Amino acid sequence: MDNLKYHFVTKWHFDAPPDRVWSLIRDGETMPQWWPGVKRFEIIGHDKSLKIGQRINAAVQGLVGELAFTLEITEIENGKRLKMKVTGDLEGEGIWTLEEEGDGCRTIYQWDVSTSGWLMNALGIVFKPVLMWNHNRVMVKGYEAIKTKLILN
Predict the structure, then answer these.
(1) Tens digit of pLDDT for each residue in 72-111?
(2) What is the 3-state secondary structure (H, E, C) of the chain?
(3) Hey, where are the domains in the chain?
(4) Long-range residue pairs from 121-126, CB within 8 A, at least 24 positions apart, any chain
(5) Tens of pLDDT, residues 2-19
(6) Over the chain, what is the mean pLDDT?
(7) Which InterPro entries match (predicted)?
(8) Rounded Cα distance, 82 and 110, in Å
């Protein structure tokens, strides 16, 4: 059975400058505490800074359990762009871009992945729209959480 491919583009606007939004991304290990659906985000090694080659063990809540994957940073432009290779239950890449927009920040998160597990591929044949809905639900909760964090900090 072939892996099912998914393409997501999430666009957000925040009433905060890009550097404030970037600070939340840079402090990713706290995400499970405030982003519903993010179950794990552990930067591997003693150096917790985001840099090329840095690896992160992550997991998100799926409909049939957790999806666990490793992110490896392949490109970074501090405060502006983060590109990651994804391996594990999901395979592919993600790109998070931040840019000034008026008095705030526009972010675009592009996620091009495929599912590697036989169960996700089997379920996806029938339930792909539901799996896509679940991804979007997690992202909406993330948007709301980031907005709240920006107001409180």
Answers:
(1) 999 999 999 999 999 999 999 999 999 999 999 999 999 9
(2) CCCCEEEEEEEEEECCCHHHHHHHHHCHHHHHHHCCCEEEEEECCCCCCCCCCCEEEEEEEECCEEEEEEEEEEEEECCCEEEEEEEECEEEEEEEEEEEECCEEEEEEEEEEEECCHHHHHHHHHHHHHHHHHHHHHHHHHHHHHHHHHHHC
(3) 5-152
(4) 121/1, 121/2, 121/3, 121/4, 122/1, 123/63, 123/64, 124/4, 125/4
(5) 888 999 999 999 999 999
(6) 92
(7) Polyketide_cyclase/dehydratase, START-like_dom_sf
(8) 11
- Residue 1 CA to residue 117 CA, distance in Å, equals 10
Q: Are 107 and 97 in contact (CB under 8 A)?
A: yes
Phi, psi of 102 (to 5 degrees): 60, -130
How far apart are the C-alpha atoms of 150 and 153, rounded to whole Å?
Answer: 5
Question: For domain 5-152, which architecture applies?
Answer: 2-Layer Sandwich (3.30)
User: Residue 60 corresponds to which tokens in the numbers above?
Assistant: 């998100």
Burial class (CB in 10 A: 0-12, 13-18, 19+), 23: middle
Q: Which residue has the tokens 């920006």?
A: 150
